[in-house]
Amino acid sequence: MSTIQSSMLEVKGHTYCALTIGEVSGELPRHLLSGEQECGYLYREGSLTELYYARIADRDGLRSILWDTPIFIPVTEIGTRFPDQVKEKILEVSEAMQAVPRSFLQNERGQIPAWRIFLLEGGGVALLPSKLSDLILYSASQEDRNIYLHRFHRPDVHSPFALCHELAQLLYLALAGFAPFEPEEVKQTAYRPIPSSIAIGGLPAESAAALDAILTMPVSAQRTAVSGAYSASENLSWFDEQIRDLSFTLDEKASSEENLAAYRETLKKKGERREFWRKKGVGIIAAALALTIILSVSVRTFIRSLEPPYTAGMTSEEIISEFFAAQNDLDIERMNASLARGVKNPFEQEVTTLFVNSRVRQAYEQVDALLTPEEYENSGSEAIPYTAMIYGVSDLTVTRIGEDAYLATYLYYAPDRSEDTGGEAEVYRGVVAENRVEFTFSDTKGYEQITRINDLGHEIVREFEVPYER
Question: What are phi and psi of 450, to 5 degrees?
Fold first, then answer.
């Protein structure tokens, strides 16, 4: 149950409306109490008046803000306190928000904590200033933060549309008894709320459709519906138009409890499947891809052993050049095409791992994770896509060092793994090494084949940094 409740309190012969905001826990932050007091507003019958609190009192282990005003009723309790006036009370809140100065409710996200909105016992609305909101945030329990703040969170809400969306959530809460994005199964299924026709028994179909349309509206449609030139409160006239002529009186004979339970169970199963694939999907896909690659390579290797490779007819120098071109393309089949039976490719594990990781990320994130040195140079850009890496071979030189032996010298680009920076890096850090590899060939089948690959080591020639595109 929420701690944020109001009651009448007598202090030294004076009666106040005391709004409890949480348990007493240390001294209050001085910056929230210093300087000129920010005013809130009372809205009654179209009239707006300034509202200032009288004092802050700690009593019986609870912290309260005291006013010389009527009892405050949390906006989250509209459904229980005013079950026959839900639409009217929501519209009254909207009118109050439009009446206050533009800057009063304006913030970066557009939406405000629900503990800034209260109804008055005798009619009207009280809106608290942002400094008192920060004070409540400091004092509130985790349960109160969930009730008034976290359960109304939804990603991808256009800031000028945010208060329209928030009032639609409060309307849904008042009618359904829970906020549209509050159930865990809703969060796990891409924040698609339970349709109003299922969550709210007896709600007229036209009203359910209008409410669902607001709650599920994509950002592109939100931008079209309201003007970015106005504040979130000024755009509330659009919300008023959507619901003013609709009925939100429920048919008491209609019940959706069984349908709601069945729907939530279905969502729960979908959410569990999504969570399973979110945690283990990449590993399963990677394992399947790796197995497919291994089987494919094995089968093709057997078939290839029965026929000349595509490099048949190439000179030894051309085969070496093709070998490293295939490495840049992460193509193990082409790299191994000219290997004689039993010859080990020392770069096979590295290239296979990079190939699997890059394909998984392309499938899951639509990200091309690898750039060759040549691709980076030809792009003309000083930055690379975030999470990409520069990998591959450039400046290859092949020198004959014996009757059937050749020395390949080249620059090898790879990420710098010497230190783990942790978190989100601002730049890509890479190293360039000069590598030397010896190749030995034979011609026993009428075409050149690699009979030995000897990695002679490398020497780091430079380290470099490239900014990420943001």
Answer: -80, 120
Evaluate whether 106 touches 141 at the Cβ level (below 8 Å): no
Distance CA 442, CA 404 (A): 7
Q: What tens digit of pLDDT does each residue of 140-161 get?
A: 999 999 999 999 988 889 999 9
State pTM to two decimals. 0.59
Question: Other C-beta atoms within 10 Å of 170: how many?
Answer: 23
CA distances (Å), origin 407, targets 26, 119, 141, 397, 398: 73, 83, 70, 8, 6
Q: Which residue has the tokens 């009666």?
A: 15
Angle, CA of 121, 123 and 125, to the nearest 5°: 95
Task: In whole angstroms, give the CA distance from residue 96 to residue 117.
Answer: 10
Strands 55-59 and 62-67: antiparallel
Separation between Cα atoms, residue 221 and residue 225, nearest integer Å: 6
How many helices, marked H, and strands, marked E, lie in the chain? 15, 16
Examine the pLDDT at 275 and tell me if it is beyond 70.
no
Amino acid at site 224: T
